[in-house]
Specification:
10-stranded antiparallel beta sheet, two-stranded antiparallel sheet, alpha+beta, single chain, 256 residues, globular
Length: 256
């Protein structure tokens, strides 16, 4: 396990309709407990600053989780009511097209296919997402900021320009100019959470679902729920998938 690496599962493409914010909150409390970290800091749309977790929980219960557009919870911070040196961070936000993520130190729990399958299946009860990704990223490079397409910890140098453009591209296309549509991809990651809208897309004159299933070199496809599949790829399989889906016009932020 690596103390410098953060594991991330990010879920996108959902609206407030069909959500269960209270259920999600209770589940995340149990998840923090299962992973062995105490939640100590919270952010709410009703508070301008980060607050103590206990205070935030009281507010949520007082107002019955109504009129809440975003909740963030952090654990293991080095200073109360801040996000300094967190070990676990999670957020759910219903602005724009919606996003949700869980970030956790690889030294606390590893990112495995089985673990993602469990979390995605559980979380689908509370949040009607239609797309997701799973990846690892250095803490120094803002693994949580990356979810939204915000550049963090990457200096503006010629060798970093492409990565910076790829990250910022997601923010522009997903959150700003409405270029994202259900069935498209940000890029290809070790873990990709898909729906039938993705699997019917055309890749090399066949559906993406068939393209994956008919060649072991294209990764593995596992059904998670009635509406979600997990597409897992080894690092060596990702470049071919990127080129093939790019040619089919399915990748928004690979070649920018």
């Amino acid at each position: 396990m690596n103390h410098q690496i953060c594991n991330v599962i990010a879920l996108y493409d959902f609206e407030e309709e069909g959500r269960d914010l209270r259920g999600w909150f209770k589940y995340m409390e149990r998840w923090f407990e299962s992973i062995g970290v105490i939640p100590d800091t919270m952010g709410l749309t009703t508070s301008k600053k980060l607050i103590q977790y206990k205070s935030g929980k009281r507010k949520l219960e007082k107002y019955g989780f109504s009129d809440i557009k975003a909740i963030s919870v952090l654990g293991g911070v080095s200073e109360a009511e801040t996000n300094l040196n967190w070990k676990i961070s999670t957020e759910i936000c219903y602005r724009n097209k919606g996003l949700f993520y869980v970030c956790f130190d690889d030294a606390i729990h590893s990112l495995t296919k089985d673990y993602i399958l469990k979390l995605v299946k559980d979380l689908s009860q509370f949040c009607p997402f239609k797309y997701g990704i799973g990846y690892q990223r250095e803490f120094t490079k803002g693994p949580d900021w990356y979810v939204s397409g915000i550049i963090e910890g990457i200096k503006r140098t010629p060798e970093n320009n492409r990565e910076r453009e790829q990250i910022g591209c997601w923010f522009k296309k997903y959150a700003v100019n409405n270029r994202y549509k259900t069935g498209l991809f940000r890029d290809i990651y070790p873990f990709n959470i898909l729906t039938s809208s993705h699997l019917v897309q055309k890749v090399q004159n066949q559906s993406l679902g068939n393209w994956i299933r008919q060649n072991p070199g294209h990764g593995n496809l596992a059904q998670v729920t009635n509406h979600h599949w997990l597409w897992s790829l080894a690092p060596t399989q990702i470049p071919d998938a990127q080129e093939s889906l790019q040619k089919s016009g399915l990748l928004l932020c690979y070649k920018v």
